[in-house]
Design brief:
alpha/beta; Rossmann fold; four-stranded antiparallel sheet; 10 strands; about 25% strand; binds adenosine-5'-triphosphate; P-loop_NTPase; EC 3.6.3.25; nucleotide-binding
């Protein structure tokens, strides 16, 4: 089963900035892929396209055989963690945040509360359940965002710079939660060290696909320099 089929996908922002151009990629269900590229290389844009949150100006995208424009299918099967968790966390407390998405998907309240508590314990968030998300540290915010998404067991998980601005213990915890995830994983990053932690396939994106292969691409200094990464 293909998790992602992207054909000749292009996207430009309303101000004319080019996001991605002519991107063609196939990803099988269960693959763990790093989307590696320089700042401004189009990684976030491509994740937003894969999540169906913006529509390609040209080309098309299918996720598990469904068009990425199929909102109901996407809500139930695709999870995305934004680079800046403040773009995602907007409920009055962490508990409300954990209850929000199950409620959107019509999970009965009692079951949602059980799920929320299970994930709060697993993610070490029990002590902050009553806090407003904006009062949390960067690492705690990322953990809340990850817990909210993983509790719904998405078949495809899209992560945008999951460890940016997070260090020490929270970073190790986040990497462990990511490695426990068993579905199809696409992680956008510009940090080379993160790639082997989260992927065994590397797609280098700088507006368009510059290379697609195994972890050995990380040793190709010419390629990394040409792609603006190293
Ligand atoms: N909302 C927007 N409006 C206009 N241009 C945008 C917008 N978002 C991104 N861009 C532009 O699109 C291009 C690709 O940006 P994108 O954020 O997808 O890259 P990125 O690889 O995720 O970068 P970074 O590693 O810095 O997050 C950049 O030139 C950027 O300036």
């Amino acid at each position: 089963m293909k998790a992602v089929v992207a054909r000749n996908v292009s996207y430009a922002y309303p101000d004319g900035s080019r996001g991605v151009e002519g991107v063609t990629i196939d990803i099988d269900e269960g693959e763990r892929v790093a989307l590696l590229g320089p700042n401004g290389g189009g990684k976030t844009t491509f994740l937003l396209l894969l999540a169906g949150l913006i529509k390609p100006k040209a080309g098309h995208i299918e996720i598990f055989g469904h068009p990425a424009s199929d909102r109901d299918f996407m809500r139930r099967n695709v999870g995305i963690i934004f680079q800046n968790p403040d773009d995602f966390l907007f409920n009055p407390t962490v508990m409300d945040e954990l209850l929000y998405t199950p409620a959107q998907l019509d999970v009965p309240e009692e079951e949602a509360r059980k799920l929320a508590m299970e994930f709060a314990e697993k993610f070490g968030l029990v002590n902050v359940l009553h806090k407003p998300p904006f009062r949390l540290s960067g690492g705690e915010k990322k953990k809340v965002a990850l817990a909210c998404v993983l509790m719904l067991k998405p078949r495809l998980l899209l992560l945008d710079e999951p460890t940016a601005n997070v260090d020490g213990k929270a970073r190790r915890e986040i990497l462990r939660f990511i490695s426990d995830y068993e579905g199809t994983l696409i992680t956008a990053t510009h940090e080379l060290w993160l790639v082997p932690e989260v992927a065994d396939r590397v797609i280098i994106l700088n507006r368009t696909v510059m290379a697609d292969g195994g972890l050995d691409l990380l040793e190709d200094d010419d390629l990394l320099e040409r792609s603006g990464i190293a």
